[in-house]
């Protein structure tokens, strides 16, 4: 029987990543004057790379304005008769809450707040900070009649956004954003409905963006750390979390920013990758393989034998002159009473650094 495991602890290229998947289902019913698309139009913005030279609370960076042009949508008249009425817009930011320290900003995570400003066209032609309530474009451009239950129109509201990031807590190695939906835009024509429908006419998405800071930490000179347990038994008595130990020496070197002023205290954590945490014990890393691996996990301890829990920061006591070694020990462990199927298994994780 062969159970082979490779554990990779990689350099954390971008310490924080926030992803959201908030595309709502389109409702079947619409209200009078509601503006809809077959599927909500997605304004996807690529923000590129921006550097925040001062990695301190209050430092900010404004990302470039993007203009993605116009799109088509449907005005639902429902037999109503009106003309010369403006379009009203409302915007929400699902999944984000108001910042407690920066007015007008939303909390992106524990380190960064974000301000999102959406362009309203018509005769307004200015930016509004998300979230905002019913706001007119002051352009009387729509006509509804009983003979025309629906009308097609072109819209540019939402085609431009301004995104500003502000640091609330110093970070290491910066942050990467991918496919994050930051705002939903709703629209209606006229005063014939008190509110807005359930279906957004547009979704504003940050397709990609990178924020860099001068404070950087490198793990194992940027090279993956591979651990192989070799051939091990598959019974729970042998896989009790105290046998088949493998040492994992993790060298960390930090430079730039705060690290240039002298010794800085940091803390480290292990973030599980695709396998996540073990289903039978949240103190262990999960495993994957060609057969069911729900009853097999990896236990990590420090050199003193204390369990290193996934996603839990611990002080890096061996960190001197902005570098040091974090010596971990890995053990395969089975769920008590389980008989583990033969075959290879794999687990991977990322080392995360944070300021104390």
Automatic annotation (TrEMBL):
The keyword Endoplasmic reticulum does not apply. GO terms for cellular component: pilus. Residues 206-356 form the Fimbrial-type adhesion domain. The keyword Transport does not apply. Pfam families: Fimbrial. Keywords: Fimbrium, Signal. It is found in: Fimbrium. GO terms for biological process: cell adhesion involved in single-species biofilm formation. Residues 1-29 form the signal peptide. InterPro entries: Adhesion_dom_fimbrial, Adhesion_dom_fimbrial_sf, Adhesion_dom_sf, Bact_Fimbrial_Adh_Pro. PANTHER family: FIMBRIAL SUBUNIT ELFA-RELATED, TYPE 1 FIMBRIN D-MANNOSE SPECIFIC ADHESIN. Belongs to the fimbrial protein family. This is Fimbrial-type adhesion domain-containing protein.
């Amino acid at each position: 029987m062969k159970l082979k495991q490779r554990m990779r602890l990689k350099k954390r290229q971008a310490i924080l990543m926030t992803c959201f998947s908030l595309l709502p289902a389109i409702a079947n019913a619409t209200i009078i004057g509601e503006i809809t698309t077959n599927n909500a139009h997605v304004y996807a913005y690529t923000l590129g790379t921006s550097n925040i030279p001062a990695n301190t609370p209050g430092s900010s960076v404004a990302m470039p304005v993007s203009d993605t042009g116009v799109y088509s949508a449907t005005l639902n008249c429902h037999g109503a008769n009106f003309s010369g009425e403006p379009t009203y817009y409302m915007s929400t930011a699902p999944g984000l809450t108001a910042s407690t320290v920066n007015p007008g900003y939303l909390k992106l995570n524990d380190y960064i707040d974000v301000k999102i400003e959406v362009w309203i066209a018509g005769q307004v032609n200015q930016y509004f900070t998300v979230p905002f309530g019913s706001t007119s474009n002051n352009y009387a451009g729509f006509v509804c009649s009983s003979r025309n239950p629906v009308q097609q129109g072109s819209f540019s509201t939402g085609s431009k956004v301004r995104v500003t990031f502000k640091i609330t807590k110093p970070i290491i190695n910066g942050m990467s954003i991918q496919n994050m939906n930051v705002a939903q835009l709703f629209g209606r024509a006229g005063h014939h409905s008190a509110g807005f429908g359930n279906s957004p006419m547009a979704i504003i998405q940050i397709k990609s963006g990178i924020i860099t800071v001068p404070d950087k930490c490198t793990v194992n000179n940027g090279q993956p750390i591979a651990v192989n347990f070799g051939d091990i038994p598959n019974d729970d008595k042998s896989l009790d979390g105290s046998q088949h130990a493998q040492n994992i020496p993790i060298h960390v070197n930090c430079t730039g920013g705060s690290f240039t002023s002298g010794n800085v205290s940091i803390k480290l954590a292990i973030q599980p990758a695709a396998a996540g945490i073990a289903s039978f014990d949240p103190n262990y890393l999960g495993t994957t393989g060609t057969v069911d691996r729900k009853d097999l996990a990896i236990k990590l301890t420090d050199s003193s034998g204390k369990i290193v829990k996934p996603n839990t920061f611990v002080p890096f006591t061996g960190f001197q002159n902005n570098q040091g070694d974090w010596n971990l020990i890995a053990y395969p462990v089975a769920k008590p009473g389980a008989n583990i199927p033969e075959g290879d298994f794999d687990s991977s994780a990322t080392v995360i650094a944070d300021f104390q």
